[in-house]
Amino acid sequence: MPWTEDQGVSFQLWVRGYPETSSTAVAYGKIKNHRKESIEILGFETDEFQRIEWHETQILDNRVKMKKQSFPIAIEPGNTWEFKANGDHLMMMERVGKRTKEELNLTVKIKNLNDVRIIVPVLEP
């Protein structure tokens, strides 16, 4: 999967396919900081969902639980942050309208940088 780079930050994100009736979706992938200073991810937005939360998967007593985390996500110079199944992931909630395409527009909010707009593919499992 190709990377998208903007302002010294690279993105390789994707959304797991979801049915038209689903009000939620999940995104995975990586964000790499190529800058000489740390960056702070303040949040994410898309026109298809009302909100996007950062969740951590926790397994306690053989039960899977999603725990909401608080932004920002700090990424040191040269480091990569990964969203993956059974770990940190982006939970998109309260879908607006119907799913109409195989990709969605995602805006990444980064402290002291311009918003980054990327196209994220929706990949069927």
Keyphrases for this structure?
eleven-stranded mixed sheet, 62% strand, mainly beta, 125 residues, 11 strands
Quick summary:
Helix content is 0%, strand content 62%. It has 125 residues and is mainly β. Strands 1, 2, 3, 4, 5, 6, 7, 8, 9, 10 and 11 form an 11-stranded mixed sheet that branches.
Give an overview of the whole structure:
Strands 1, 2, 3, 4, 5, 6, 7, 8, 9, 10 and 11 form an 11-stranded mixed β-sheet that branches. The relative contact order is 0.31. Helix content is about 0%, strand content about 60%. It is globular, with a radius of gyration of 14 Å. The protein has strands at about 5, 10-15, 25-35, 40-45, 50-60, 65-70, 75, 80-85, 90-95, 105-110, 115-125. With about 120 residues, the chain is mainly beta. A hairpin with a 5-residue loop joins strand 10 (about 105-110) and strand 11 (about 115-125).
SSE string:
EEEEEEEEEEE
Distance between the termini: 15 Å
Integer average pLDDT: 93
The number of helical elements comes to: 0
Radius of gyration: 14 Å
Pick out the low-confidence regions: none
Overall SS class? mainly beta
Shape: globular
Report the strand count.
11
Main sheet characteristics: 11 strands, mixed
**Portion of residues within helices:** under 10%
Q: What percentage of amino acids are in beta strands?
A: over 45%
List the topology elements.
Layout: E1 4-6, E2 9-16, E3 24-33, E4 39-46, E5 49-60, E6 63-68, E7 73-75, E8 80-83, E9 88-95, E10 103-110, E11 116-123
Parallel strand pairs: 2-11
Antiparallel strand pairs: 1-2, 2-3, 3-8, 3-9, 4-7, 4-10, 5-6, 5-9, 10-11
